[in-house]
Amino acid sequence: MAILDTQGLQAVGWRGFLDYEYLLTSLAALLLATVLAAVIAFHPTTQRNIDTKTEAELPKVLVMYALIGAMVGEIVLEYGMVVGFIIFGLGGLMRFRTDTENTRDTGRIITVTLLGLISGLNLPHFAVLAAAFAWVLIYIFDGHPVCSVEVNEIPKGKVKEAAAAYRQILVDNHCKVISEDKSYSKNRVDFVFRAPRSFDQAALHNALCSQVPDELRGDIDWEIE
Q1: In this structure, are 158 and 118 located in the same domain?
Q2: pTM for this prediction
Q3: Do residue 131 and residue 27 come from a single domain?
Q4: Which of 142, 158, 180 is the last residue of a domain?
């Protein structure tokens, strides 16, 4: 049976902040994992096939999970497979026992749990580095929330014109339209878009309600990440 050498863990502590070579190596590993995951997650062919808000969110989730993998790899490389088994056991337990609304929230739960574990393993320098890196990623990704707007009850025969009017308002408010799905039989149009960092849902909702002509206007239903 493998035995974990706790003396090695206790020998690191706060002096790890002076180990600049380890910090740079760890930072490089986190950066490499993020870049490689982004290359796959934001592949051009994938971006062209996005139809739903969940699909639009998936690339960010993939990058965050790559970061989690890099964090696990750094710990295992430093302290062996025993710690790795503990981490994967915790991850599996949280994945099936933790009630979260989406995979993004699950990823954050695993991330903060790993940060707690790293801190408990007497690796404050790597804990701070990983937390700062994760914070920057979340700031970049979640600064532009992905939203879905469903416009129902559009006057019959006006779906195409209404879609153009609503799309123009979104563009005028600095939103990047990711997908647009028109249903002529149901008199409905669905938009998935990425909102600006200064996103104000109430202001955009008022614009969508007031700036579309009455003869093209429908009922708006929101879904925000």
Answers
A1: no
A2: 0.76
A3: yes
A4: 142
